[in-house]
Write a structure and sequence with these properties.
The protein has 288 residues and is mainly β. The protein contains two helices and 19 strands. The radius of gyration is 19 Å and the shape is globular. Its main location: cytoplasm.
Length: 288
């Protein structure tokens, strides 16, 4: 569906822009050594780079629309069957544009069976001032499955001096292990909630917020190895905790997204190398 909206260009002249609302989805399953049950609808697109030496099968999830506008509905579902492995990344940071009043809805649904391993590395989500986003992430990991998950929220176009100071954000994460809910996280920014971005007990001025989850048997044994990695950037607030013997949580909060990105990369490489037995390197697309 296409709508039109009046906007101001850089000279202050009113222009008419065409806003296309998307209802896009991408679904795939890795089973029997191949990608099975694959389906995509615009603007979602799957790319399949050749795996580098020592790496598992890899996919890149892209949004060819270039961003998300109010009213869009986008979803990603990935399943990894028993004893299969997959590295999934996103093509670029997802941009959530200023809304004309409608809310964009996004869903990420990741499932890992016993013996399976899934790495999900998002390039991040950038919320423009005035954006409206409602996102739900569901992580379903079998008792003997392994998931290394990362998502970063950047609250504003910080390089342009713009912060996310109006609009709405509702971001939910639900993690199940062996069918049982073991962790739930809700972040909401609306109305007076924006005051928390500058509060000492809130974000304390931080605008780049990363979550890394490692769910695997004996995941907590990586706790002491991760702590020194987080101390490498003194200007960044970061912490790691073992929520359960099989669940590790890392949180990274920074005013500078570049500093946060550097720390995310170091932590990610440390976990995948030390716990998954994979090369201590980031996907090639991460450097683009």
């Amino acid at each position: 569906m296409t709508e039109t909206s009046g906007q101001l260009d850089e000279a202050g002249t009113t222009v008419t822009a065409s806003l296309e609302r998307y209802d896009g989805a991408l679904r795939l399953r890795v089973a029997e050594g191949r990608i099975d049950g694959f389906r995509q609808t615009p603007p979602m697109r799957l790319f399949r780079p050749h795996p580098e030496p020592g790496e598992p099968r890899s996919v890149v999830v892209g949004n060819v629309a270039g961003g998300v506008v109010g009213g869009d509905r986008l979803g990603v579902r990935i399943e990894v069957a028993e004893n299969e492995s997959l590295l999934a990344t996103t093509q670029a940071a997802e941009k959530i544009y200023r809304s004309d009043g409608a809310t964009a809805t996004m869903g990420v649904d990741l499932s890992v069976a016993d013996g399976g391993t899934l790495e999900w590395l998002s390039a991040g989500t950038i919320l423009f001032d005035g954006a409206r986003l409602d996102r739900t992430t569901t992580l379903d990991v079998a008792a003997a499955g392994r998931l290394l998950y990362c998502e970063t929220l950047v609250l504003g176009r910080l390089a342009r001096g713009e912060v996310f100071a109006s609009g709405t954000l509702r971001d939910r994460i639900r993690l199940r292990r062996g069918g049982r809910l073991v962790w739930a996280d809700d972040l909401g920014l609306v109305g007076d909630g924006f005051a928390a971005l500058d509060a000492a007990a809130g974000f304390a001025g931080g605008r780049s917020y990363s979550t890394i989850l490692f769910a695997a048997p004996r995941a907590a044994t990586a706790l002491e190895a991760v702590r020194p990695l987080l101390e490498a950037e003194p200007a960044v607030r970061a912490g790691v905790t073992a929520l359960a013997p099989d669940l590790l949580l890392v949180r990274i909060l920074a005013g500078d997204p570049a500093q946060a990105r550097k720390l995310v990369a170091a932590t990610w490489m440390g976990l995948r190398s030390g716990c998954l037995g994979r090369p201590a390197q980031m996907p090639t697309i991460w450097a683009i």
